[in-house]
Amino acid sequence: MYIKALVLDNFKSFGRKTKIPFYEDFTVVTGPNGSGKSNIIDGVLFALGLARTRGIRAEKLTDLIYNPGHEDDASSSGPREATVEVILDNTDRTLERSQVVNAAGSDDVGDVDEIRIRRRVKETEDNYYSYYYLNDRSVNLSDIQDLLAQAGVTPEGYNVVMQGDVTEIINMTPYARREIIDEIAGVAEFDAKKEDAFAE
Ligand code: ATP
Ligand code: MG
């Protein structure tokens, strides 16, 4: 499974709906400073609900909505709403149809060659709302997180390696570094289960 494309709409610097394709093996994004490269990663973190733990660069969720006067802090008019969709290629069936159906709480999810995870944040006068969709079915964050965990993508995981993470790993104690390796190798899960078993 890999990210096939990302669709950003009114998200951060992407004021117009923008579809960014990714290759299966390796994709490099280049561009001048401030052109929106890191905003693309923020889009992935936002849509997959990984934002809180993996350090998305925004103080509040509504800062992620495109604001034409971003630099001079002028307030914008019109709908305050941002959407990001991550399109995963699942032709290798990393996730079985039954797993997707289960997470979506519906049979109506298509053929699951594509898994589309979409998040929308909407600002109203005195509040904001966040919505998640799985193949166009409305779901909760926990449904998305449970599904992604079955594909080895977790908020604590190192599926996304942020700037500074490498330095942090180098400066860790050997024990803490070992915990990361256990996590990536999938051993940590069994440690937790073993502890639970002993506790019983
Ligand atoms: P660098 O090479 O310096 O890392 P970058 O390509 O990663 O740059 P980003 O950090 O992705 O750049 O983009 C920063 C730009 O996004 C800034 O110009 C900032 O004004 C703009 N930006 C961030 N949030 C918003 C927003 N809500 N509305 C409009 N523009 C925004
Ligand atoms: Mg950057």
UniProtKB/TrEMBL annotation:
Binding residues for ATP:
P32, N33, G34, S35, G36, K37, S38, N39
UniProt subcellular location: Cytoplasm
Q: Which superkingdom? A: Archaea
- Main role? Required for chromosome condensation and partitioning.
The subunit field of the Swiss-Prot or TrEMBL record says: Homodimer.
UniProt comment concerning the protein's domains: Contains large globular domains required for ATP hydrolysis at each terminus and a third globular domain forming a flexible hinge near the middle of the molecule. These domains are separated by coiled-coil structures.
State the family named in the UniProt similarity comment for this chain: Belongs to the SMC family.
- State the protein's name: Chromosome partition protein Smc
